[in-house]
Amino acid sequence: MLSKDPASSATHASVQQSLYGWREIEGGVESAWTDNSALSAITGQRYVRFVRPVQVAARGNFVFVVDAGPELLYRYDLSRNELKVVLNLKGVMAGEVTDLYVYPDHSFLLVDPDSARVLHFSRNGRLIRIFQDGLNLIRPVAVTYDEEMGRVLIADGSSDDVLVFSTTGQLQGVIGTRGVQEGQFLNITAMTSGADGIYVTARLGHRLQVMGRDGSHVKSFQSDAVVFPLAVAVDRSGNTFVSDYLDNSIKVFQDGLFLESIAGSGFSPGRFKRISDLWYDEGFLYAVDSLNGRIQVLRVEVIEPEIETFVEDEIDLETAPPAAAEVLPLGEPGEELELETAQNELEELQEELEAARLELDAEADRQPAEAPLTSEPLPVEPGQVIDSPGSEI
Predict the structure, then answer these.
(1) Which of 360, 388, 387 shows the shortest CA–CA distance to 375?
(2) CA–CA distance, 138 with 118 (Å, rounded to integer)
(3) How far, in Å, CA of 80 to CA of 13, rounded?
(4) Residue 242 shares a structural domain with residue 120
(5) pTM exceeding the 0.70 threshold for the entire prediction
(6) Cβ density class 252-273: b for 16+ within 10 Å, e for less
(7) pLDDT at residue 367 in the model
(8) 337 lies in which domain range?
(9) Hey, which end of the chain has fewer CB within 10 Å, N or C?
């Protein structure tokens, strides 16, 4: 299990979410020669190591990695440990890629802030479309695809808003404005889409907000839990993972509430140096450990809370209220419930009868001149008054 920061940990009322180390990806076997590859004397294959990975995305068995060192986009096969160059970024991108989104068909979007464009490529690296707008898109920093609405969302770091494009590249609207109030952003750093809406992180003001698909403000997360959010990912249940540049940790949120802080600075597995990107896919969280030259894959583990149960032998009948002595089964109406209720009433009646008998015996001891009471138990019907003072059942 990855290390946690106890001082920053918090608990949630319903479930606890934890991340467990699964594997590290530092590179892979590639057939073509590259400057950062090494020939294996045993297999004759060339092993390529990542230099400075900056972006990651995953779809099933394939992990896509943007390496800013050699300026290449790789596709890594998890089962075969093979690395394939999908796109040489030299001459294609004006600057360093700041975000990557991969569609289920393995086509992908690359954000190029220096050219104020977002480029859509096919799975084989062929340019399909360019998203740009000279008046509104000045410095794109993040991109995601809204599956529910079928729209491409691009966060602009200059105007600090989210531009909404159709899949064919037409600008349709804008979400949010620049500022520090709810529904406003100041220095956007990352963005992703989830079931609740659009998750946007910012350096200042509200550091993590969820915006509705209609542009409304849905909720803000605890701003004091993360200082410098650099990347964000959301699973299908709305559990949110945010990387904090300040302490190289991953902050875990659920329903907007801070759960725990995991990992920290270092070189060993489960430690990071600049988590520049996060991506969630099929129960795994992919984290770019940029300055350590690797991708760390973490398994998301959901721990259900233990349900508190009552054990009859442990109940203190002297101090507990009468209702606590009997725990009726839930969700079993009909004859079973009626039978148990009748049995309880019968037990109470028997206790009252025994108390009445003892009282009658005591009264007989105090009056020896009167005819002795029979030793046989008195036939008593509910509600009958026995010929003895103060003894009514």
Answers:
(1) 360
(2) 11
(3) 41
(4) yes
(5) yes
(6) bbbebebbbbbbbeeeeebbbe
(7) 60
(8) 312-393
(9) N
